[in-house]
Specification:
- By secondary structure, this protein is mainly β.
- It has one domain (about 5-100).
- It has 1 helix and 8 strands; from the N terminus they run ββαββββββ.
- The strands form 2 sheets. The chain has a 5-stranded antiparallel beta sheet with strand order 2-3-6-7-8. Strands 1-4-5 form a 3-stranded antiparallel beta sheet, with no helix packed on it.
- Strand 7 (about 70-80) and strand 8 form a beta hairpin.
- It is elongated.
Length: about 110
């Protein structure tokens, strides 16, 4: 087998939605997101690239009384292909992320 590293191209498209009507209501502060991703791959085997594509959905849940949020996302994708003697991988990925945001370096005006 002949393997070669080649230049990789990535194409991504994403959307995010949030209601900003009433900031006091918890349900209005939740953010929703979705995205598509296509990648031509950096590895070429017998003049055939191993590309990948994926689709993702996510939700960002704010943590009460802070600017932080709990982010949960799900991705479904595939990498490679079965034809031409290559291997195809189909995957499901669940991600959990805690985004900490705040005013850590602001000097207090009142002690």
């Amino acid at each position: 087998m002949y393997r070669n590293f080649v230049n990789q191209d990535k194409f991504a498209l994403g959307f995010s939605y949030s209601k900003s009507k009433n900031i006091r209501r918890y349900s209005d502060r939740i953010q929703y997101s979705t995205g598509l991703n296509y990648d031509t791959g950096y590895l070429e085997v017998d003049n055939k690239r191993i590309n990948s594509m994926s689709f993702s959905l996510g939700v960002s849940l704010p943590v009460e009384n802070t600017f932080s949020a709990l982010n949960i996302s799900y991705s479904y994708g595939q990498k490679g292909r079965i034809s031409d003697g290559l291997i195809k991988e189909i995957y499901h990925k669940l991600s959990l992320n805690l985004g900490l945001d705040g005013i850590w370096f602001v000097k207090r005006k009142f002690e």
